[in-house]
TrEMBL record:
Organism expressing this protein natively: Novosphingobium resinovorum
Family stated for the protein in its record: Belongs to the guanylate kinase family.
Catalytic activity annotation: GMP + ATP = GDP + ADP
EC number(s) per entry: 2.7.4.8
The protein's name in its UniProt record: Guanylate kinase
Chief location of this protein within or outside the cell: cytoplasm
Cited PANTHER family: GUANYLATE KINASE, GUANYLATE KINASE-RELATED
Enzyme class: transferase
Keyword Cytoplasm: yes
Pfam families named among the record's database cross-references: Guanylate_kin
Subcellular location(s) per record: Cytoplasm
Biological role: Essential for recycling GMP and indirectly, cGMP.
Length: 221
């Protein structure tokens, strides 16, 4: 009998369940920059667009960078259980809508989350096996201040608040699987890409290979 050669789905798109790739850092360390680079580079990765009650920054587009909603709308969504996680950060509400992500994961879509440590803990408690937690550190506190100031999007008061909070955010670094120092942006991007690549190859995620592996293990006739 001629046996067909088993062939795995090497694209990895439908061969496994999607993963939830979380990037956190103190404000200004560069997670949004790295997240945007990854999304541009990797068509398999989709952005999880959060809802927030904060005002848009110049250049931010509703529905693309955030869903900008009112406090009343946010509270109604909390009440209706429409968030996978939500938290108050810098006096504003932020949350991850459930609907898009849950359906996508089943179809093998990988999602990028730019969220804080509180949201990370909530996602980990709910969906531990799908979550990959990456924490970015700034090369120094002075550089963090320079980046927040240089971004030119926040008032001196807001920057002061974010710097005040940076140390307590950094103290949550031990709740993450990977830690990368974002000194040189290109090197940081490379490191984060490698983490994503390796996580996609985790055996536990490769459910689509089960049939292929069984065939490989068949005894010779
Ligand atoms: N490695 C780097 N070297 C120099 N500048 C950087 C680097 N990474 C990011 N930046 C710059 O630092 C500023 C802050 O970056 P970004 O907005 O990505 O931070 P963030 O962690 O997402 O902050 P937030 O939590 O407030 O949204 C931006 O102006 C960005 O261009
Ligand atoms: N728990 C969540 N945190 C979120 C979410 N979306 C963003 N964030 C975090 O908020 C701060 C501030 O963000 P900014 O865009 O106003 O500078 C930052 O740490 C983000 O990671 C979310 O849906 N849930």
């Amino acid at each position: 009998m001629v046996q067909s050669t088993p062939s795995p789905d090497t694209t990895g798109t439908l061969a496994r369940r999607g993963l939830m790739f979380i990037l956190s850092s103190p404000s200004g360390a560069g997670k949004t920059t790295i997240a945007r680079m990854l999304l541009e580079h990797d068509p398999q990765l989709r952005n999880s667009v959060s809802c927030t009650t904060r005002q848009p920054r110049p250049g931010e587009i509703d529905g693309e960078h955030y869903h900008f909603i009112t406090h009343e709308q946010f509270d109604a969504m909390v009440e209706a259980g429409e968030f996978l996680e939500w938290a108050t950060v810098f006096g504003q509400s932020y949350g991850t809508p459930k609907a898009q992500v849950k359906a996508g994961l089943k179809d093998g879509v990988d999602y990028m989350f730019d969220i804080d440590w509180q949201g990370t803990q909530q996602l980990y408690q709910k969906l531990e096996r799908d979550v990959v937690r990456v924490f970015l550190l700034p090369p120094s506190i002075e550089e963090l201040r320079r980046r927040l100031t240089g971004r030119g999007t926040d008032s001196a008061e807001v920057i002061h608040g974010r710097m005040e909070r940076a140390r307590s955010e950094i103290s949550h670094w031990d709740g993450y699987d990977y830690v990368v120092v974002n000194d040189d942006i290109a090197s940081c991007f490379e490191e984060v890409k490698k983490i994503l690549h390796a996580e996609r190859l985790r055996r536990a995620r490769q459910t689509g290979l089960i049939g292929f592996v069984r065939e490989l293990m068949q005894p010779d006739d």
